[in-house]
Amino acid sequence: MSIRPPILAALALVCVGGLAHAQTDAALESFYKGSQIKLISEAGPSSGYTAWARLIGQYLPRHLPGQPGVVVQSMGGAGGLIASNYMYSVASRDGREIAALSREAPGLALMGAAGVRYDSLKFNWLGSPTSETNVCFVDKDAPVRSLQDLRSKEVLFGTDGAGSGMHIYPTALNALVSTRFRVIDGYPETGAVLLAIDRGEVQGACISAATIFQSRSEALRAGRLRLILQGGLAPDPRFPDVPFMLDLAANDEQRQALRFLYSAEAIGRPYAAPPGVPRERVAALRRAFSDTFADAAFVADATRQGFDVRPISGADMTALIEDMARTPKPIIDRVAALMQRRDAQ
To answer: Coil, helix or strand for 263?
Structure first.
């Protein structure tokens, strides 16, 4: 029986495609084998970003062609801006340098924040192991007990730099919904802020729920620390009695602004490669992150360490950031102007 020309053409395309795929896989394995990937964390050694990076660094090589080594390096400072700027302008474009960037990095770029020298829409986003809820908490003696107290009583909140969520969220809440957080910058990292709260230098902070429950769960259970507000794109069912930040919004503009800001929580713990990395290596890195997050051993290890694995793919993360960029410019400009004005005081 003869085979018709269209069928022969289709078979030829399949063979060529399969050969090209095999050649790509072989090239990727050759490139990564025996090499080392530098995984930069945007925060200090005690941060949740770095804890996640260390864990991911243990499992990621299993899922990359050639199984390269992974070394984690902290590059803290300016609330994550140092690492983001470095990844955009300095880092190698060959696929062997990746980073755990701040979840606030996309929003800061879209707002044109001071110190930003990157375009978040041009990063190659690789994925995130989880979505987050941000919580604001205070020590037991702080005078805040109700939503009304948030607007009438000043509390001192520590932060690890102007680009971080610890700074951005209380500053934005002050500007948008008239809370009275007095923001104290200058601490080098998350752990230093927590120690400052322990010592009574400041009264609270806004931080990811995962980080506070990992580092101060006993204090929370004992009542020495109290959750006073939660933020994200939706209320976290784990905290049914903690007020949700959108409950403070008085109008649609405030709600849009708060949703823009708190989209970062859905981004969670984002990983990125610089612009300009070859497409096939970006695809390999994205597959490796997705496979790592689905690895049963990784999930079990993460659970033992108190991490909540709720992964987001690189493609979905990119779509979320593109959606943030579609927020009406007057809303983005309003958020940026409010924050800049408050920061100048």
So the answer is: helix
- CA–CA dist 242, 234 (Å, integer): 12
pLDDT digits (tens, 9 = 90+) for 29-39: 999 999 999 99
Predicted TM-score (pTM) above 0.85 = no
Which amino acid appears at position 186 of this protein? G
How far, in Å, CA of 315 to CA of 327, rounded? 19
Residues 101-135: pLDDT tens digits?
998 899 999 999 889 999 999 999 999 999 989 99
- Cα(211)–Cα(306) distance, rounded to whole angstroms? 9
The dihedral over CA atoms of 97, 100, 105, 107, expressed in degrees to the nearest 10, equals 120
How far is the C-alpha of 48 from the C-alpha of 102, rounded, in Å? 11
Distance CA 314, CA 242 (A): 31
Q: Which residue has the tokens 């001071």?
A: 114
48 three-state secondary structure: helix
Q: Which amino acid is at 321?
A: I
CA 241 to chain centre: 25
Find out whether 66 and 29 touch, Cβ atoms under 8 Å. Answer: yes
Q: What phi, psi does 41 have (nearest 5°)?
A: -100, 135
Residue 148 CB partners (closer than 8 Å, separation 6+): none
Any idea which residue has 């929580």 for tokens? 265
Q: How far is CA 80 from CA 47, 108, 197, 228, 251, in A?
A: 11, 11, 22, 25, 31
Of 139, 118, 150, residue with least CA distance to 272: 118
| CB within 8 Å of 37: residues ≥ 6 apart | 60, 61, 64, 68, 69, 70, 71, 96, 97, 98
Own/partner pairs, 336-345, CB within 8 angstroms, 24+ separation: 336/111, 336/112, 336/113, 338/172, 338/175, 338/176, 339/111, 339/113, 339/168, 339/171, 339/172, 339/175, 340/114, 341/175, 342/171, 342/174, 342/175, 343/162, 343/171
Q: Give the whole-angstrom CA distance, residue 111 versus residue 324.
A: 11
Among 165, 152, 230, residue whose Cα is nearest residue 193 = 165
